[in-house]
Structures are given as C-alpha cells and as structure tokens.
Amino acid sequence: MNKTRWIIFAGVCVVLFGILFITSPRAESAFNGDAAKVITEGPIQDRVYGSADQKVVLIEYGDFQCPGCAGIAPTVTAIREEFKDKLTFVFRHYPLTDAHPNALAASTAAEAAGQQGKFYEMYEKLYQVQSSWSKADPKQRDQLFEQYAALLGLNIDQYKKDLTSKDISDKINRDRSTARKSFGIDGTPTFILNGRKLDSQAVFDTNSFKQTIKDELTKAGYKLE
Q1: What is the 3-state secondary structure (H, E, C) of 33-58?
Q2: Which of 38, 96, 151, 194 has the most neighbouring CB atoms within 10 Å?
Q3: Are 61 and 92 in contact (CB under 8 A)?
Q4: Sheet of 196-197, strand order
Q5: Rounded to whole angstroms, how far apart are CA atoms 22 and 122?
Q6: d(CA 220, CA 212)
Q7: Which of 110, 126, 106, 107 is nearest to 118 (CA)?
C-alpha cells in the first residue's frame, strides 16, 4: 500500500472512530459549570422535584436497574416529600451498563416521560416494579416501559418519538459526565448534599440519612418542627 493510500486509510479510520464515539452510549456531553448546583439553564436542565431555589440541594446519581437504588427509593421519596418546601431534590442518571444492560433504556424511558411532565412518576414506577423488567429481553423491556407510559397517561406516539431524541441522550451523557468528572462516582446510589458526597453505606440507615438532611437544613437556617 503506497503512502497516499495509507493516508486515505488512516483518515477513514479516524472518521469511523469518531462516529463510533459519538454514537456510543458511553459518549459524554461536556459540562463546565458547577455540578454541585442545580442546572436550570441551557438546553440540558436538571430534573428537579419541587423548587430549584432552596438553600439545600440533594442530588441523587442513580441507576434504575440497581437493586440498591430501588431499595433506598422509598426512603428518598419520604425525605423528598417531608422536606419539599425546604429541600431541592435532583435526580441524575448514572446507568452502570456493564452490570445492568437495561439501565440505559430505563433512563431513556424516564426522560421520555419527563418530556411530558411525568419524570418522577416514571421514576417511582421503574423502581417499584424493577424486578418485572430488569431481566427482560430488549423487546419485552420496551413493551413493559410502554405499558408504564400508558398507565401514566402519556401520549404514546410522542413518548416513542422522544425515545430517540438527541436531547435525551445528551442529558443522560451529561449526567454521567458530571458524576465521573465532578465527584469521582463509580457506583450507585450516590448522593451529593450541598456539594458533599455522602457516605454510601450511611445513607442506607434511614434515620441517619434523614438526620443528615435535617442537620444541613438547620445549618442553612430552616426551622424544623
């Protein structure tokens, strides 16, 4: 192969590699802001429960197929509800696709529901029935997710269209990027409280987790009953 052909071959390889990287589920969207704060500006915004303007921000990095995430979800929901007037809660995606092959599809389904204002309803559903879809094959999994979308009253045609949205894939990739680059996260669930990564084991003690939140709220000047 002469020099010219080698140059052409190398150029083709570079282009193909670039395409594979961009289309790979592991490709990450760059983020240069403060990931400890709620992201409410720009094309990729956080999924916020309640007000985005509270003094205390709790961010969960989760994987919908992670058993630990499903196990702690009722505690997170209880904390979210009890302190919703004082606490800003954000869920960000960190699907561990090597261990959980259906996790990325679940994140995509949740984001598609979010496009119709039902992100946290789908969040709850996916965790509540995790055992029903976690080991399903792709076809069965997608059918189940569509059933959940219908139960939530979503427009199914729009839901299916949104599943292939670049905005959604960019959102998930951006979340992954902030997890790794900003907090060094390598597992789920991981919680960030006002920029501080909480001990992974301590959060599974419901009383301890709740007290940690209360202490942060008190420090921020909120009066608790």
Answers
A1: CCCCCCCCCCCCCCEEECCCCCCEEE
A2: 38
A3: yes
A4: 47-49, 87-93, 56-62, 190-193, 196-197
A5: 27
A6: 13
A7: 110
> For domain 35-219, which architecture applies?
3-Layer(aba) Sandwich (3.40)
Give residue 19's pLDDT.
Answer: 33
What distance in Å separates the CA atoms of residue 89 and residue 107, rounded to the nearest whole number?
A: 17
Q: Which sequence spans correspond to the domains of the chain? A: 35-219
Phi-psi region of 30 (alpha: psi -120 to 50; beta: other; left: phi over 0): beta
Q: Quick check: 89 and 58 in contact, CB under 8 A?
A: yes
pLDDT tens per residue, range 134-148: 999 999 999 999 999
Query: Which residues, listed in sequence order, are joined to residue 196 by a DSSP beta bridge?
Result: 193
pTM of the prediction?
0.86
